[in-house]
Design a protein that fits this description.
heterodimer; A: 525 residues; Rossmann fold; 3 domains; 18 helices; B: mainly alpha; two-stranded antiparallel ribbon; 76% helix; transmembrane helix (chain B); ABC_transp_permease (chain B)
Chain lengths: 525, 337
């Protein structure tokens, strides 16, 4: 599908399609990679990057399509086969044994032996040589992995891949867990690997590093390949446009009128913890505030901090005028804050318990005399969230995703919250139930609740929010008014690194890579 | 030490990495538990001496070591299973059945057939445990509890009391000494050495630690985790078989209560945990376990000398085990922080 490259094509994926439970997540994606090339793969959350990568790694078998490596067709059905063919993956979560040494990790499953026993010396010598080849002098082969920084653990993962003679290295958001200067070191490492003739498939949200590192960029959107271009022929704006270009089609309830927005319900000043920095935030009664940002930008951390599940360690917070920085969910619940979590099955519901038990969970756990007995008004509550179930005694695991979410919302409404936080409110929910949840959220705001929505679905976020906060790297990178375009949101989310205007002095790092392109949107906040 | 052969840079790096290890020596439970064994012995000596007794007589020390053998054999095997993140609760009944099989087989046949029969039985039980845990995906706690019940049923149905008779030639294992040292102690040391070699120096051993440390990561690295768990169970049961043979030799006959009376199932797990092996797997080793066994044996001996009542004795044992594990957990938490 592409003009012949100067260097020969090493890896080619052609027409790869994949469906899960009848939902097509990849539509005929084609992609090729030359030896020595860094090929970047970008797209919004859920665009299909990870699925494509997992198909390549043998974790998912494709429904259609061909994978060719050095002219040989492959059809991987197990990760070990892909590894044997020379494809190495650096996952976002490392597959390392913390309590074993670097050498033991690098050669795990392939330990060299001598007289039937593991040849520790050979293993450590070879690990040391691989590390020296990479110019990594800070890691000893006998160091325990738990004693290494995240950046160095990542290097160990890379060495582990190199030890098995990979030809193609797939890196999934490798800089996401790294500090700026560490990211700079990783970039240098990626360049050295490419210079050694490896083909590197580089998945990243940070467009600046993509432009910096790659020779070509492929953009995915909704499982389709939008374009593959040479990096020198494109820029941030064009990539962002390709990532988001789609129409708003769904219906959203009308936004709040100015007179409906009331008093501040929850105020945070200078909030911060390990993952968040300098959070200033005001949630008002009657208003729906949206929080946008890419994965790892700190959106979920923000919601969890407000709810006391991963508390703020600095700053002040007030709820309805009373100072309170919750250090546990129980405190937050008592103050009237509720969080509908992202992972409904693990954190939202007791799946083997009934609708009734789930809906009454919070009121039973955190009793409050001022609240009317929830058990009596349960029926009304379930009607209010428009639950469709066989009855209050049905186990929640048998409900659809949308109805499960309604039970979670009912559970929180029973506690009479004043601030309602939603993390991905419609993830895994079908279209009909989505609209019902959107309407419900707006109705709740009309009743005077302050609502915060975290969502990866930009159309939803833009359609629902009265204003949008965009987060990047643990800070609020900027605020956009209702009806902002997806492009504006994405631009703030992807290019916010070291945005001037936000006055947060920490993390000022002398080694931080200087911005390579002047950012046209600087100061948008 | 192997660093000397390397290029200067990695050697330097290795030296750098050794520094935290040196500081961590004392924090290593395998070292700590041996120090604790020494401390308990010293304490026992002082307390007994204060009562006018003599704790460190040759007879008493030899007695302590002799008492280590059976529990030591079981605990060392248990270590291999626990390292993979599994567990074996069937060891007590396997010991009982082992002594019965040994004694009844040796009564009619030769010592060799008796030994082989016990080892074959053990391997079969271990294989069954491993297959149930990995194949049927039954939690190890339940799976081995189930095999324990099955073995118990078999014992109660077929043996009403002590059975069989061990020939005098086989009783050498239980009672002979080389100088002051019981022969059986060499059996324990040999088995421990073999298990140390297997866990530390073979590929299987490395995979044992990897499987217990993070099964997913191990599988992604090409480790056949199921086989590893099954092999660990077989290895454990073989050690238990050795313990059964030793006890048969001591008792001179097979006994249905040989393994259950001393509660080798829970006792062995306690010794393993006391020795610093993490119950979730992936960390620890047989050297620490041996230290744990020694601590328990010394405590027992001190209490016997002092004539302490069994209630107090058990309370102290419980406190020691809980305190040790709490200490390890705190250290682990500080390290990861």
């Amino acid at each position: 599908m592409h003009a012949k490259q100067a260097t020969h094509t090493m890896l080619a994926m052609h027409g790869v399609s994949k469906s899960f439970l009848g939902v097509r997540v990849l539509h005929g994606v084609s992609l090729d990679l030359a030896a020595g090339e860094v090929h970047a793969l970008v797209g919004e959350n859920g665009a299909g990057k990870s699925t494509l990568m997992k198909v390549l790694a043998g974790e998912h078998a494709p429904d259609e399509g061909v994978i060719t490596l050095d002219g040989k067709r492959h059809r991987f059905s197990h990760p070990a086969q892909a590894q044997a063919a020379g494809i190495g993956i650096i996952h976002q979560e490392f597959a390392l044994l913390e309590h074993r040494t670097v050498a033991e990790n690098v050669f795990l499953g392939r330990e060299p032996t001598r007289y039937g026993l593991v040849d520790r010396r050979a293993m450590e010598d070879r690990t040391a040589r691989l590390l020296t080849d990479l110019g990594e002098h800070g890691i000893g082969p006998r160091t325990y992995v738990r004693d290494l920084s995240v950046a160095r653990q990542q290097t160990v993962e890379i060495v582990k891949a190199l030890a098995s003679d990979v030809r193609v290295l797939v890196m999934d958001e490798p800089t996401a867990p790294l500090a700026d200067h560490e990211a700079g070191l990783l970039h240098a490492l990626v360049r050295r690997l490419a210079a050694r003739g490896l083909g590197i498939l580089y998945i990243s949200h940070r467009l600046r590093e993509v432009l910096d590192l790659s020779q070509r960029v492929t953009v995915l959107k909704d499982g389709r390949q939008v374009t593959t271009v040479r990096t020198q022929d494109t820029d941030t704006d064009r990539i962002v446009r390709a990532m988001v270009g789609r129409e708003l089609s769904a219906y959203y309830p009308p936004r709040a009128r100015p007179d409906e927005v009331g008093e501040p319900r929850l105020v945070v000043r200078g909030g911060g913890n390990a993952r968040l920095t300098g959070i200033d935030l005001t949630l008002r009664a009657g208003e729906v505030t949206g929080v946008a940002g890419l994965q790892g930008a700190g959106r979920t951390s923000l919601a969890r901090a407000l709810f006391g599940a991963a508390p703020f360690t600095t700053g002040t917070m007030t709820v309805d005028g009373a100072a309170l920085r919750p250090t546990s969910p129980r405190q937050a619940i008592r103050a009237g804050v509720a969080l509908v979590t992202e992972d409904r099955k693990a954190e939202g519901l007791a799946l083997r318990q009934s609708v009734r038990d789930n809906a009454l969970l919070v009121t039973r756990a955190v009793p409050d005399r001022e609240r009317p007995a929830a058990a009596e008004e349960l029926t009304a509550l379930l009607a209010k969230v428009r639950l469709q179930a066989r009855g209050e005694h049905q186990e929640t695991r048998y409900l659809s995703g949308g109805n499960q979410q309604k039970v979670v919302i009912a559970k929180w409404l029973a506690a009479r919250p004043r601030v309602l936080l939603f993390d991905e409110p419609t993830r895994g929910v079908d279209v009909g139930a989505k609209a019902a949840i959107h309407t419900l959220v707006r109705d709740l705001a009309r009743e005077g609740l302050a609502v915060l929505i975290v969502s990866s679905e930009l159309p939803e976020l833009i359609g629902m929010s009265d204003r949008i906060l965009v987060m990047a790297e643990g800070r609020i990178a900027g605020e956009l008014p209702a009806g902002a375009t997806e492009e504006a949101v994405m631009r703030l989310a992807t290019t916010a690194s070291g945005t001037p205007g936000t006055t947060t002095p920490d993390r000022a790092d002398p080694d931080a890579p200087a911005p390579t392109t002047p950012d046209p949107q600087e100061g948008a906040a | 030490m192997t660093g000397t052969a390397l290029a200067p840079q990695p050697a330097r790096a290795a030296a750098k990495s050794r520094a935290p290890r040196g500081r961590g020596r004392l924090a290593d439970p395998a070292v700590g538990v041996w120090l604790a064994a020494g401390a308990v012995t010293a304490l026992g000596w002082i307390v007994v001496a204060a009562r006018g007794g003599d704790f460190l007589t040759l007879a008493n020390v030899v007695g302590i070591l002799q008492n280590c053998v059976a529990l030591g054999l079981v605990a060392v095997g248990q270590t291999a299973v626990i390292l993979t993140g599994s567990l074996d609760l069937s060891v007590a009944y396997l010991i009982s059945l082992g002594t019965l099989v040994a004694a009844t087989t040796m009564e009619d046949g030769s010592v060799v057939t008796g030994v082989l029969a016990v080892l074959a039985l053990s391997a079969a039980v271990g294989l069954a445990n491993g297959l149930i845990v990995t194949g049927l995906k039954v939690n190890a706690f339940i799976a081995t509890l189930g095999t324990a019940f099955i073995l118990r049923g078999w014992i109660e149905d077929n043996y009403t009391g002590p059975a069989g008779k061990v020939p005098a030639s086989f009783q050498h294992l239980g009672y002979d000494r080389m100088g002051p040292v019981p022969v059986s102690l060499f059996l324990l040391l040999a088995v421990t050495a073999v298990l140390w070699l297997i866990t530390r120096r073979t590929r299987f051993g490395h995979h044992l630690y990897a499987t217990g440390g993070d099964e997913h990561a191990a599988r992604l690295s090409g480790v056949r985790t199921r086989r590893t768990v099954i092999a660990a169970h077989v290895l454990c049961s073989l050690c238990v078989g050795a313990a059964a043979l030793f006890l048969a030799s001591r008792l001179g006959a097979g006994a249905p209560w040989a393994g259950t009376e001393a509660r080798y199932d829970l006792e062995s797990i306690a010794a393993v945990v006391l020795g610093g092996t993490v119950l979730a797997g992936g960390r620890g080793g047989v050297v620490g376990t041996l230290g744990g066994v020694l601590v328990l044996a010394v405590l027992d001996s001190v209490f016997n000398q002092l004539g302490v009542d069994p209630f107090f004795k058990n309370v102290v044992r419980g406190v020691v085990i809980i305190a040790a594990v709490a200490l390890y957990a705190r250290r682990g938490a500080r390290r990861s922080a």
